[in-house]
Amino acid sequence: MLIKRAADLRESDVTPKETFLRRREFLAVAGSTAVAVATNGLGPVFTATPTAAAQNPAAQKLANLKKSPFSTDEKLNSYKDITTYNNFYEFGLDKADPGKYAHTLKPKPWSVVVEGQCGKPGAYNIEDIMKWAPLEERIYRLRCVEAWSMVVPWVGYPLSEFLKRFEPTSKAKYVEFKTLVDTRQMPGQTEPALNWPYVEGLRMDEAMHPLTLLGLGLYGEVLPNQNGAPIRLVVPWKYGFKSIKSIVRVRFVETEPINTWKQQQSSEYGFFANVNPQVDHPRWTQGSERRLGEFFRRKTLMFNGYGDQVASLYAGMDLRKNY
Ligand code: MTE
User: Fold this and answer.
1) Ligand 1 centroid vs 6 CA: distance in angstroms?
2) Of the residues 73, 109, 156, 222, which has the maximum number of CB atoms within 10 A of its CB?
């Protein structure tokens, strides 16, 4: 994200590798129909997309998933796209690194410590957390600050269902999340690429918003390690960096947390990080994006297309200053 200056960037750095390779394929077969698509009313079905189970037979299936009215019916990215093109700096800086190296992460046993301004602080284990609300499939667009995007069939439940169990007090204005620190499980933490642990935060109304998901799986299975096993955030109207992975600590606080990317470079990354095509990143445009697997760039939508649901959260705020 801030590792390379614009002048150092080659097209292959800002173009997902698969897109880059597929473009050559595309040029070779331009004009022919590439993918067969069907819709069953419950969401998109892509006959050319290999199933998750076919690619990861050992993965734990998640049954009885509710369908969500918040899901988009856009074409899903494949399991392969979603699990081999990742940002998870705890495993390296290259997009392929998490897929190659995250097998060292042990998502079981796992517990999450909850603390701060709430009535029920404590340590809660992942098996219990998974049962606290019915699991849903939510198909969301994910827009990375690096101007690529994908469509992911997440599994989880509303973050509000998780947070309200701890009875936040009236002093809880924000909630802060931290990722595991363990250099044996996350070897990339031996490098000072970021200040560890990775930290993120949401204002309480953002955290309690019905679109904000506690991510526990994707493609009908528990989360693959590289996507933030066993528990992460998914905040679809914000740049992907707000969707913190492999969470071990949740803290209700009175003041705005200093999130990792703001710590790193506050002139480029803010606390709100709402997707906003009108405010360019200082080193590249945010007006358009490359969807993984697509040839042409598409226009980026305000709030990543979720404006009808979330714009009111920011009424009266100057979103050029509060980026
Ligand atoms: N969480 C942690 N702990 N470490 C990270 O490096 N990267 C963020 C976010 N969460 C990151 C993280 C960024 S920049 C993005 S775009 C998304 O994870 C990517 O999620 P995905 O790999 O599941 O697509």
Assistant:
1) 21
2) 156
